[in-house]
Structures are given as C-alpha cells and as structure tokens.
Amino acid sequence: MSQAKSTFEQWRILQAVVDCGGYAQAAEKLNKSQSSLNHAVAKLQTQLGVALLEVRGRKAYLTESGEVLLRRSRHITRSVSELEQLASNLEKGWEPSLLISREMIYPMEHLIDALAEFEPQGRGTRITILDSVISGSAELVESEAVDLAIIGGAPPKGHLAQPLCNVDFHLVCHPSHPLASMELPLDDQTLAEQLQIVIKDTGQIARGELGWLKAERRWTVANFHEALVVLSKGLGFCWIPSHLICDAIKEGRLTRLTLKGSSHRQVPLSLVIPNRDKQGPASQLLEQLILKNHSVLEGEGEG
C-alpha cells in the first residue's frame, strides 16, 4: 500500500482558502499565518503534480482539476471528522447503536416521530427496530437484549413501565365473508365455528397468539400485513389494531363486526428500560423524545 502524498491538514487549508475567498481571510479563520497557508497549498500542488488554485487579483480561484479534487476532499475530511467525533462519543459513553423492541401493535408513526427528532442530535447512532409480540417482548426485556422496549400489557416482574397510549382492536372480516351478513352482535359460538387469523407470538417459549382464541380453525401468521392479505381473499376473521384498518373500513374493503360483551378490545402500551443502570446518554435522549411524543413528560398522558 503506497504512502499518502497529502495530509488531512493540507486539504482542510485548501477548503478554507476557497470557502473564505482568499489566503488572508482563511488565515484569520484558522488562526494561522498567511505564509503558512501559502506554503501548505503550494506544497500540496507540488506533491500532487496538479494545479489546484490560481490567484487573480487578490482572490484565489479553483482550477477545473482543483474543483474535482476539492469536492472529493470534502467527503474525506467530513468522514475523518465524523470518525473523530465517534471516538469522542465512545469515550464519553455515547452509544454507537441502539436496539429498540416495538410491540407490533404500537403505531409506527409515533416511533418515527421520536426518531426524526433524535436523528439531528444522535451523533451518528445506528438504530435497529425489532418487532415483537406478547412473550417475545417480555423475553427481550428480561434478557436485557434491547436498550428500550415498547411493550403491551403489564411489564415483566421486576421492571417499571411508563404508560404511553392505548391501542384499540376491531373485529373485522371481508365484506364477502358469511360473518358480514349475519345479525350483529355475534355470539361466541358463531365466531368459534369460523376460521380465525391470529398473529404468532415471537417469544422463544410461545405463551399464546394475539387474538381471541376460541375458534378451533385457526391460521397463524407473522404480522398484521399478512393477516390483512388473508382477509382480503375473503378468508377468516381477525382482531386488527384500529389504526391499521381505518381506511379499509371507510372504503368498504373490510367490515367491522361486534361480539356480544366485547365491542372492541384495548391494549395498553408502555415504555420499559430493561436495565436503567446501564442506560447510556443516547438511550436517555430517545426515551425522553418518545415520552415527549406522548406528552408524558408534561403529565398529560394519552389515551
């Protein structure tokens, strides 16, 4: 591997000369002598064997070759600066990555809103989001496999949870399904005789599936997108979060059903920090932004 002919500092000086419009202005910005800047750029051009600048009057102008090389140099110096910033962040304990567990029923737009606010302050922290269901969410918290977890229902024993919101479920089927033409509300026995679509528990030791589970005929799928595809074919019924099916119900692509004694279901969602003692500053910032998104910090809560 050949040794580099130029240095990071030389390119930084060249950028300053161009951006400031001359050597004198750049010298003032960089707190260096004008002669040292002249020497650095002249040496850079000699080392490369390419003319980068030409001086006309009191201003320095890029040559065509200089424009190409300067443009590329900005990417390189930016990358070096980001690398140095990352090293500084790691030294201070700022996490280079965060792993978030999201109960699948949690509205994704809420999390994206918080992440959009986090990104400009995130110092390059990489984000990974895992979708989980029922015991899968609990297992990720108990094993401390994630930095933050949005869970449904009660938190695992020994963990505190901050309530975020409630998600309503509606019982739906396709308009062509026999249930759609039956008199409402339906009774348990009628529903138990039909095919039910449920969402698979993501836990290693599955404790159940997502949905009312009295139907003997049951198809289990990985997520609500797959469940909606099945329903669109006129097959089965399913409990689906209301925010996922508002448009489909309005447009007549799905029919909402009611069950005696249960017009809808509601699941509370909460934010859990699996290990508060090990929580870093990036995780703390994102936690605050998620809570802010739900007005929890102001004590207003959200229903």
TrEMBL record:
Residues 7-63 form the HTH lysR-type domain. Gene3D superfamilies: 3.40.190.290, Winged helix-like DNA-binding domain superfamily/Winged helix DNA-binding domain. Pfam families: HTH_1, LysR_substrate. Keywords: DNA-binding, Transcription, Transcription regulation. Coiled coil: none annotated. One of its GO terms (molecular function) is DNA-binding transcription factor activity. PROSITE patterns: HTH_LYSR. InterPro entries: LysR_HTH_N (IPR000847), LysR_subst-bd (IPR005119), WH-like_DNA-bd_sf (IPR036388), WH_DNA-bd_sf (IPR036390). Belongs to the LysR transcriptional regulatory family. PANTHER family: HTH-TYPE TRANSCRIPTIONAL REGULATOR, TRANSCRIPTIONAL REGULATOR-RELATED. This is Transcriptional regulator, LysR family. It comes from Shewanella loihica (strain ATCC BAA-1088 / PV-4). The lineage of its organism: Bacteria, Pseudomonadati, Pseudomonadota, Gammaproteobacteria, Alteromonadales.
